[in-house]
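Recap for those who missed Tuesday's class. We walked through two folding examples back to back. For each one, the amino acid string is listed first and its predicted C-alpha cells come directly after. Nothing is annotated here on purpose, so try labeling regions yourself before you check the end of the notes.
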Amino acid sequence: MKAFLILEDGSVFTGTSIGSQREVISEIVFNTSMTGYLEVLTDPSYAGQAVVMTYPLIGNYGITPDMESQRPWPDGYIVRELSRTASNFRCEGTIQDFLVRYDIPGIAGIDTRALTKILREKGTMNGMITTNENYNFEEILPKLKEYRTGNVVDKVTCSSRYVLEGAGKKVALLDLGAKNNIAGSLNRRGCEVTVYPAHTPAEEILAAKPDGIMLSNGPGDPKECQSIIREIRKFYESDVPIFAICLGHQLMALAAGADTHKMKYGHRGGNHPVKDLATNRVYISSQNHGYVVDTEHLDPKVARPAFVNVNDGTNEGLEYIGKNIFTVQFHPEACPGPQDSAYLFDRFIEMMGGKS
C-alpha cells in the first residue's frame, strides 16, 4: 500500500506503508546511528516524534532482547529500506510485526538522504504519515503547524516505584523517561537503584536517605516540566551527590536559574564528539536531544561548562560550583553506541564515597 510523508514546508515523499496504517502527525527528526534501531525505537526520549533512520537498511537482525524500555515510543518510523527477512540467532520477530503490534505507522522506500537534508537546512518540522491518496494539503497544513509534543514525560515515566537490588551505594533514579541501561549501568557497579516516577516529591526521595540521586533522560521541551523543576531545585539545595543525563541535565540547569532553547535539528545518533574541558580529551558519544542549555547567560557562580560539542560548540555538560553535582547532555550508558564515557558512572560512585 502507498504511503505519504507530508511536511509542513510542502515537501511530499511517496513510499510504501509499513507498520500500522493509521494516520499520524508528529515532529519529524532524524537519527544517524548505523546500528541499534531497536534501542532507538524503545528509547522513551522519542515520545512525540517520528524518527527518520539515515542508515539505509533497517531490520536485518529483527527484534532481539535489546529493548531499552517495555515498548517502542516514536509516533512514526521512516526508513529507506525495511529488511524483508530477519537473520540473527537472537531474533524474536520482525520490525514490521513489531510496529503493527504497537500500532506505530511508518513509511519505507523514500529518499531518506533528501529528507534529512531538508531537516538540516530548514530545521526540525512537523509532518504527517498517511495512506490517504486523496489528501488535501490545504486542510492538513494548519494541523501540521498546530502540533506540539507537549508534556510527554508524564506519558513515559514509570507508574510506581521499584528497586534493583544491590549491595553497594543506594541511588535514587528519577525516571523522566529513563533508558534501561542507566539503572543497569549503576546496578552492574553494585549500586542498589530505586527508580521513582517523575512527579515523586523531593521530600519523599530525600527522606529515604539515598547516597546519590540520578536524573534520567526523557522526551520533550524541558520547560514543559515546571512542577518537576521545582522538585529538582530541592535536590539542588541538598548536599546529596547528583548525576544527570540529557533531559535531567537540562532540568537541573533550569532549576539552578539557567536557560534552555530549541536547536535547529538536534543531536541524535551514536557518533557525536564531545570534549572534556578539564582534560581536552575528546570522546565519541551517543545523543538524543533537540534542546540545549544556553551557556551564554550561565551564572559562573552557579555552574561552569564541563563538556562541549566539537561539531557545533553547544554545551554538553556542567559542573556546579560548591555542589556535588555534574550533568551531561550525552548518554554515557550508550546502548548501543560508544562506551567512551561510561567512566562517568564510576566518577558518580566516587562522589558518593564509593570505589569505582
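Example two. Treat it independently of the first, because the proteins are unrelated.
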Amino acid sequence: MKINPNFASMERNYLFAEVAAKTAAYQAAHPDQRLLRMGIGDVAGPLPQAVVEAMAAASREMGRKEGFRGYGPYEGYGFLREAISAYYADLGAQVDPAEIYVNDGAKSDAGNLGDLFDRDNLCLIPDPVYPVYVDANRLAGRPVAFLDATPENGFLPLPGPETRADIVYLCSPNNPTGAAYDRQGLQAWVDFANRTGAVLLYDAAYEAFITDPGLPRSIYQVPGAKSCAIELCTLSKLASFTGVRCGYTVFPKGLRRGGQALGELWLRRQATKFNGVSYPVQRGAEAAFGKEGLAQARQAVKYYLENAAILAGAIGKFARYWGGKNSPYIWMECPKGMGSWEYFDFLLCEKQIVATPGAGFGRNGEGFLRLTAFGSREDVLEAAERLGRG
C-alpha cells in the first residue's frame, strides 16, 4: 500500500494550525495573560436574528412527519438558489438559479474544483495567497506557478505578454492582503482567459465588505466573464456562517471546455462525493438573503469594517499597511525589518496579540503580517492601544 506522495510537497502543518499550536503553548505557559486573537478570520457573531428564526422554523418543520425532508438536491434547494440569483441581480450581475450550486462553505469547493481538471493543467496562483489554493493542487500533483503580488503592484498582479496558465486563482478582496481589483484589472484577466482558453477560479468570499462603488463585487459584473470564470462565495463572513457552513459556486451555462459544460461535470462530481447542505441551514441561508436578514448582516459587516479602520489607524502610525478598507484584513509591513514569524512572536510574547505571519501565505508574504477585524470592539480597541505603545 502506498500513500499519496504529494503530501511531501506540502508544509508539515497547515498555517492556521501552526498559529493555533504556538498560541496554545504560550497560553499554557502564561495562563494569566489575556490574549487578543486577531489571527484566524473567524467572526465574532452572532447569527442574524432572521437566520436564527428561519433555521428554528425549518427544524420544527423537520420534526413533523408531513414536513420532514431527507436527502436534498445535490445542487441545493430551488428556494435558496433563487434567493442567491436575486442577490446577484441587485449587484448588477445576471446569474440564473440553474447556474448556482450550494455547498458547505467556499473552502470545500476551493479545494475540490480541481476534480474537474486534468492534473497536467498549469495553475497560476498569486503569492501571497490563501493556502488552500496551493495545497489542494499540490495534493493532486498539479503543477503550480506563482504570480508575484507585491507593494509595487498593490498586491494585485495582472497578466503580461509572457503569462501562461490553464487555471488562474483570483481572490478579491484578497486574503490575506485586503487588496481588491477594480473593473479594469478584472477585465484584463477576463480578456486573458477568453484569449487563451484558461479558466478563472474567482473567490468572492469577502465581496460584502466592498463599499467603494467603483470596485466590482462579482466577476460577472465584467463583460465576458461568463465564458471563462467560476465564482465561489460564502455566507461565512456576510452572515456569520463560519460555524453553520453554507456557500455557493457559480458555473455559467456558457462556460465550456473540451466540448463539455463545466457545470454539468460539477453536478456529476457532487452527486458522487457530496450529499448537500441540510434543509434547516439552507432555509437560514435563504433568510440571510432576504430584506431583513441582509439588513442585519450588513450591520455586522459595518461593525467589522469599523474595527478594521481602528486597527489600521493604530498601525499606520508606525508601519505601512494595505487593506483595512473594502476588506476585514489589514496587511502590514513588519517594522524594523523583522521577519514574519519574528514579529508574530514579538506580538504574542510582548503584546499578547495573536496575528498571522505573512510568510505562511507564500514567499512574498515574508516580512508582512495579517491582522483581522473579526473581533469584539473591546478587543480591537485594546489591541490598537497595545500596538500604539510601540
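Answers for example two:
The domain at 5-47+292-388 is CATH 3.90.1150.10 (Aspartate Aminotransferase, domain 1).
The longest helix spans residues 291-315.
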